[in-house]
Structures are given as structure tokens and as C-alpha cells.
Amino acid sequence: MSMFKNKKFAGYSVVFMILGVLFMFFYSGLQNDHLNVLTPYLSEKYGWTNMQITNPVTWAGIAVIFAYLICGAAFVKIGVKKILVPCLIVLGLATIGIALAGDNYGLYAVSLFLVRLLVVPLQMGAFMLCANWFIRYRGRVMGIITAGSPLFSVIGITVLTLLANSVGIKQGYIVLGIIILAMTVITIFFIKDYPEDAGLFPDGAETAPKSEADVDLKEITVKKLLSESRAWQLIISYGILQFVIMCMMSFMAVRYNSLTPEGHQGPPLFVQALPYLSAGAIAGIPMSFVLGWIDDKLGSIKASLVLNLLFFIAVIPLAIMPVGGNKVLMIVWAFGVACMTGGVPTMHPCVTSYVYGRQLYQSANKWIMTIHAIPMAFSVAFMASMNDAGKLTMAYYILIGLLIVSFITILTMLKIPDANAADRDYGAKA
Q1: CA atoms of 191 and 125, how far apart (whole Å)
Q2: pTM, to two decimals
């Protein structure tokens, strides 16, 4: 990438990409992935029901609806770094709180609530920093940092599961909390909100973006936003993708264990599926970069269509998975999960920037993600209720139907122009 020709810009870029990978690792892992380990562990150790264990996440999901709006507005008005730092500190302490709670349900509930709530600034911060610093290379940089999401499936779930089956998961959550607090220090000393704050321009260019020469607007009202068809196309398509990913990631263990044959001897089916999840995640991690490359070369709408298709190979195998499991379906599912968890974080900020541009990105994004948070808030409760009703298989067919709707919606977006087209260099070799 030619952005590395500017050594000063390259230094900031490398630090951001490393930190961005960690941000997305913890965003994906602590949003829902860790529930695949935490839920069966606490259920067996303390006899808590699935609803008891996941209720703090459901309530936090409702609070997240407002958190997206408040956080997005604060990023615009106050600054990304000034909001991220205190949020990271509390997130780290809350993660350690889960470890120390034991059978104290009150401490557990508060800690889990805060963890689910405070991964929002991690995601929004990474997205906004990428949108601020990159235009031409936005897709590929997002593809790199969002590789952190499926990495949790490779490392986080496996490590937590091993700990849960040996000495307990307390140590795992303590280590996660310490790493988050260390990330806070890096953010304080090495992150700036805009390249202009460091005397630079996006992509390491020598001049300001051409596409912003006549743009001085940095806010878009919610009334104007919701009057535009392009906003609703984004809300519907990516709202469905966000809902599906929450449903998928929070109930993988429950789904697999529900398919464990009666009288089965040995580890539960989900434990047997973990090696496939790790292998699939490793194979799928490059897809984040591939989607980013497609975004940079062909545009965000076409890349979004590819992402939507990849979702099907994550959901369909779980819908048709037989009792006792199937190795081929497990491999396909694992690859799809990695594409899904890495692809949505890659493409969501890219497509929003594509539609609204760098200047209006966060102003529009705060409202779009707020609306997305509404169905996301009830995703875990939806899966839990379907499971309790003995209709978990039907839930996956419902998700497939929703994915058909999102694919059709994205198709209707093909004629939307790129707001930063003058600086994108579609088809360029660099």
C-alpha cells in the first residue's frame, strides 16, 4: 500500500491496525461469543437457567439502543479518544468482575451488563477512526482490523472452554480484563482522532481529499436521514445481518448440545465442533481482507452482496444439522461463521462511508446503528424463547428467510453513488 510511503502516517496506521484487531477481538468476543462458554459453565456449576444467565445481555441490549446514539454523538462532539479511554477502563474492570462474581448473581449481572454495553464504544471507535484516517484504503484496512472478530473463535472460545473444563474460567476473564486495561494505555499515547490532528491527510496523501473540496457539512439531522431511501436500505439490510449474527453467535453451543444423542458418552457435541470452528475461523480470516479488497476495487454495495451470500453458508448448516452432527456441515458452518464475524464489521463502516462519505459518516452512523440495536437487543431472547419452546430448528429457517430479504434490499442499492468516489481510484493497481 502506497500509504506506507509516508513514514509518519505509516507509524500511526500500524499502531491503529494492531489496536483495531484487539478492539474487534474483544467486541466480537465479549458481545456474544463468550456466552457459548459462559452459559453451559454457569448452568452446570450454579444451576442457573439459560434465561438467568443471558438476561443481563438482553437488558444491556436494550440499553445499547441508546448507547449507539449517545456514543456516536459524543464521538462527534467530544472526540473518539476522550470517550474511548474511560469506557475501556470500565470495560476492563467489568470483565474482571465476571471472574470474581462466583455465585453472586448481583455482581455477575452488573458486570455482564456493563461488558455487553461497553463493547459498543470499541466497535464504533474502531469504525470511526478507520473512516477518519482512510478513504482509498478503507476497505483493506477494515479487512485487517476486523480479522480480530473471528480470531476470538480461534483463540478465545477454545481457551475459555479448556479453562472451564479444567480449573474454571475465572483466570480467563481476569487475563482478558488486564489486556483491555493495557489497550487503554496504548490508546492514550498513540491514537489521534483525525490524521489532520497529526499534520497529515487521509491515506498518507500529500493533499486534502478531492471529494471533500466542496463539503463543509459534518452533521445530518435524523429527520433528513430518515426521509432518505438510502438510509432505510442500509437500516434494513445491515439490520438483518446484525440480528442474524447475534442469534448465530450466542446460541452455537446450545444448538450443538441440543443435537447430542441421548445416552451419548464423552464430550458434548459443541466441544467436538470446536476444532472445526478454529480451523474454519483460520480459513475464513482472510475473507475479511478479501471483502475489503472487493470494497476498494468494486464498491461497497457489490462487496455487501458477497457478504450476504457468505451468511447463508453459516446459517444453513445449523438449520439442517442432524442429531450427532455431520463433519462436512461443521466445516462449512465454521468457515461461514468466520466470514460472518469478520465480514460484518468490515463492511458496515465501509458501506456507510460509501453512502455518506467521511464527513457525514458518524453523523449518519449513530442513528443507523441505534436503529440496528433495537432488533439486536432481542436476538438472544428470540433464540432462548424458540429453544425453550422446542423450536430452535425453526429459528434457523427464520434467519434464512431474513437473509433473503437483506439480499434483495442490497440489490436495490446498486445505483447509489460513492460519496468519496473522487478519492477511491476504483480499479487502480495500488
Answers
A1: 11
A2: 0.80
